Prior knowledge:
There is one protein chain. This protein is an alpha+beta fold. Helices cover 29% and strands 20% of the residues. Strands 1, 10, 11, 12, 13, 14, 15 and 16 form an 8-stranded mixed β-sheet that branches. Strands 21-20-19-22-23-24-27-28 form an 8-stranded mixed β-sheet, with helices on both faces. Helix 8 packs across helix 13 (565-582) and helix 11 (487-495) crosses helix 14. Mean pLDDT is 89; it is low at 598-603 and 693-697. This is Ubiquitin-like modifier-activating enzyme ATG7. It is found in: Cytoplasm; Preautophagosomal structure.
Amino acid sequence: MAPTIVQFAPxxxxxxxxxxxxxxxxxxxxxxxxxxxxxxxxxxxVGKLIKDREGGPGAYVGVTGSLSxxxxxxxxxxxxxxxxxxxxxxxxxxxxIEEFKAADKTKLFNEAADKIWTSVQTTKxxxxxxxxxxxxxxxxxxxxxxxxxxxxxxxxTPAWHIxxxxxxxxxxxxxxxxxxxxxxxxxDQLSKSSKSLPYFLVRSSDPEVAEIVPVEQYDPQTDSSSAxxxxxxxxxxxxxxxxxxxxxxxxxxxxxxxxxxxxLCWRDAExxxxxxxWKSRIGLLTVGDGSTPTEVKAASTRPNxxxxxxxxxGKLGPRMADLAPMMDPARLANQAVDLNLKLMRWRILPSLDxxxxxxxxxxxxxxxxxxxxxxxxxxxxxxxxxxxVDSGRVSFSNPVRQPLFHxxxxxxxxxxxxxxxxxxxxxxxxxxxxxxxxxxxPMPGHPIPSSPPSILEDTKKQVEKLEKLIEEHDAVYLLMDxxxxxxxxxxxxxxxxxxxxxAALGFDTFLVMRHGAxxxxxxxxxxxxxxxNLGCYYCNDIxxxxxxxxDRTLDQMCTVTRPGIASMAAxxxxxLMMSVLQHPEGIHAPAPKLPSTTSTSTFTEEGEEGTSVLxxxxxxxxxxxxxxxxxxxxxxxYDRCTGCSETVVKAYETQGFDFMLKAFNDPxxxxxxxxxxxxxxxxxxxxxxxxxxxxxxxxGDDF
Length: 703
């Protein structure tokens, strides 16, 4: 009867794809550039024996249980059970592959082992005996994850031995000391325990019932015949699982005189139907081989430890999980869209509110050159909801200037622009919620015929649809070809408190502006400050918007601009919206102070009025491409404005479609409503009263 050293089955690891998904979120949103250790909870269960259908009666295939980490590992883990034994661990994620390779792994491992040993010495608890360490590097652009698990286990000196003849025997054997009813009792207590019990003590004074107590209650004097049990992930008949190593080290640390231990390797997830079907093993272990007396040492010094997991080649080294081939391409696209945006928050803009941007619903009125560029820029910022409105079809002159259209879209009379653009956005990014609506926007100065009645009814439906669309969105972009087509959305957007952004093009100039918000009547505001009471597109007009589409030559009917100016205006409009969204007052954000003509400073600080984390929040930007110059302008709201004055907004709110119909049919109605006609008359009268002095012929300046 020669004793042999106990050989332990290594504990393999298993990383669920959801673990890497959660680690990616944690890295991007929380850790950023930090490589601090993060507490996680893994789990493992009993080893399994599966019947081999081709091996004949009594043939089984062993499947070793593995320590698994998944998305829930970053929380509380799974409810405790025989198949879900909690194991506390830490994950340390490095910023670069070079840092991962150069990490002092010996130091990290020793620190993890020291933590376990200190817990044993100070708390006498088994809570950290099965703890682990995980170091990682996440290549978030290629979705490759490099990782290496360590399961620190102490090396007992002298080693534990087991009789080579008796070995590890089945608990079903008559000499196991445990009857069928006792084994059933053990299973029931382990299954119903509210706490995870990786280690336990089996007291079996009653031949029918076995009592399960924490292993911390072990007393060598009274428990010499009790079995010390653990949940065993091993499926090998003569090799217990890795968690036993630290349990044996724990017993020797707290009970230096211990020389014999009866160990129960619990491997049954279910109650055996028959006495001979129990899968658990039991064995009698001794310290040393018995040839020399065992020296009793004080357990103050930590024993040596081992435990780095081997890779798939069977060598000590990290593993790699490549998730790209198995991930849903649409989900990959969604993560990739957010990647660059979230990286902004690592160093440059930690306070950037990306969730607010993503949740903003944008309505683009016009799906032409400006609309296409605005939509693409909004996607770059991670905006999830974009609705396009246009009444036209794709023509052969469009694709080269409007990047969402192809040559095939021009065939057979052309596809509807709005619907086609929405489809193209989904081709670029499947995760976007893009829709298109073919809709003509009624305009002032363009009379609506009273007959047939269907025309009037169709106009009313178009207005109602436009109102509904504006109501459902947070930001409205005015990107149409004509000046008067922007009037109705301006009025509706003002009345409904929406962020209205306007972009208009000239040959080599552009205008980008945000319409001022309606003053909050519940607050006392200094409306005389032009930076806080901002105007709209029509505030500088002294006449109402009128028909500018009739009687035009070809060069006037087409948008004749320098090709690069549309993308400049579109991107400026989108960036202006982002700056507004980051301001705590949102659409009520004041315009910044205009720089002095003598000032040489071009920098602004966050917190200054009219600024956000992204910088200035201008009211108007006028670009002059011929001079490669942009001009900041602040325009105050005009109390006689035909687009945003309280007179117009209240008329819309009280009269609704009747008010609009008057504006459509009567070119002078808006001027009469706002008083612009009287202002014009007063101006004409004032000019008539001026007496011009005759030039007297004397030398001097001629003004």
